[in-house]
Known about the structure:
- The chain is α/β, with parallel strands linked by helices and 614 residues long.
- It has 21 helices and 22 strands.
- The termini are far apart.
- One magnesium ion binds next to strand 18.
Amino acid sequence: xxxxxxxxxxxxxxxxxxxxxxxxxxxxxxxxxxxxxxxxxxxxxxxxxxxxxxxxxxxxxxxxxxxxxxxxxxxxxxxxxxxxxxxxxxxxxxxxxxxxxxxxxxxxxxxxxxxxxxxxxxxxxxxxxxxxxxxxxxxxxxxxxxxxxxxxxxxxxxxxxxxxxxxxxxxxxxxxxxxxxxxxxxxxxxxxxxxxxxxxxxxxxxxxxxxxxxxxxxxxxxxxxxxxxxxxxxxxxxxxxxxxxxxxxxxxxxxxxxxxxxxxxxxxxxxxxxxxxxxxxxxxxxxxxxxxxxxxxxxxxxxxxxxxxxxxxxxxxxxxxxxxxxxxxxxxxxxxxxxxxxxxxxxxxxxxxxxxxxxxxxxxxxxxxxxxxxxxxxxxxxxxxxxxxxxxxxxxxxxxxxxxxxxxxxxxxxxxxxxxxxxxxxxxxxxxxxxxxxxxxxxxxxxxxxxxxxxxxxxxxxxxxxxxxxxxxxxxxxxxxxxxxxxxxxxxxxxxxxxxxxxxxxxxxxxxxxxxxxxxxxxxxxxxxxxxxxxxxxxxxxxxxxxxxxxxxxxxxxxxxxxxxxxxxxxxxxxxxxxxxxxxxxxxxxxxxxxxxxxxxxxxxxxxxxxxxx
Length: 614
Ligand code: C2E
Ligand code: MG
Ligand code: MG
């Protein structure tokens, strides 16, 4: 660190030397540096040319030739660089007050009178040196502070940048999270299609647009046929994969601008805007049905499925989301009832049918009490011997308004509305009573077993007990009763069903799998079940002789049944040709209009007696 300077100005060399000596002597610690000047001009040069304002004090002789002390002081103080340097005048005019006043006016801070008293000189100088030092320290600190401030600013800047960068990443991540959340909220996670909520929003907007622009729109309600069976039989992984592929095929069957959504389960909706909707919707629906015709390959499985489609149109079938969706759903329900893979437009009649269904369900509730049911019986015939091997009991309803209606017309309704269990109990009891009557008759009908159809809701732990109680009540052997259970329904809850059926089978009652071929049962499932008979579904029998594929399926079922030691019965045989083919294929029994329609017990007996006696 540099030391302050003290400037001695005196034209008189001896005085200058004396002052210099005095100060040098007192400056043992080298607290300051002594600089001398022999005139005002030289003093000015030294003061004004030095770099920093380093003079702690100037001891200025007042009377000098040329520029005197006052003049020199004035110039020194007029320069900004040296304006604040303290000046002490050195003079011999001790008593001249005017002279002293003038000095102060010229900026003197003090006066020294010659001869100078060394102690006073040294004290005064050291005060100013100390002051200068303090000033210098202060400046130094100020500079340090400034630097620190600068560093701090740099640091702050860096911190700020870092915070900013973090903030930006957070914003990006948050936007991505928001997008993901939005995706989750609007998309079906399995298929990536829009979900129900999002569809409703789209439909609301589409309706407003169509209303404004006076155009139409179509809501296509799709439901896969037999999905539940596939899912239950082959497992959820296969079911999920199938849904993904169905979604993809549906998506690619429509325009990019059409909205495709999955409502859940196997239900999908396509929303088409801005159409002369009627012909276009039919065209697109056909395309979608066709898209699902080729088989699906999922792992090692080759699956055939189809979709049924119901269509509602804006504005004619409704002008709100609820009504359009409800009507498309209703139309889909009717499409499904017609046949698999069909298309149905909504029309008011369907609503009438819905009302009819609701009414029917109410009436079903009271039908048992009102004794409106009757069992019809349809014979099962051994193909080789032509002997009647047994009968199937089929439920008929003497409906107060609609007349006689068949099982096909109300059994599903009864199952859907939960009325099947009491009806089923009535059927078993009526069949047992009939078996008793036949046992009691003297006409050789006693051995003819009666097959009763059992629906899934009936298959619960109490069923075996209830059946055996009924057999006991009517005093009939178990060999007089058979149970028929529809394949596709059975495999939905296989484990429970197997246990219940085993108990029944062990009690001596024969069990048949009904509508076989519609439910995708695997060999292992069949092996696990305690069954005795396979009934080939009518759909395979109908086209025997016309569709060689069906011949092959029936042949395969017969072979499989042989391998498992099961009897095979063909359902729905209507012609001599069908019967001949079945005989050829090695089928054991048949049932169908060709031999006899289902008939009331007494009519059937009359007919059988007539045929045998003929
Ligand atoms: P299913 O057990 O497969 O019964 C055969 C159905 O085919 C009967 O219809 C019968 O009338 C009809 N059918 C018989 N031969 C022929 C033929 O040659 N050609 C044609 N086209 N049809 C024929 P139905 O009586 O309407 O019964 C339909 C279904 O309703 C039954 O199918 C059965 O699953 C169910 N069902 C009938 N009665 C009962 C019952 O008492 N309880 C339960 N749970 N279900 C029943
Ligand atoms: Mg049956
Ligand atoms: Mg059947």
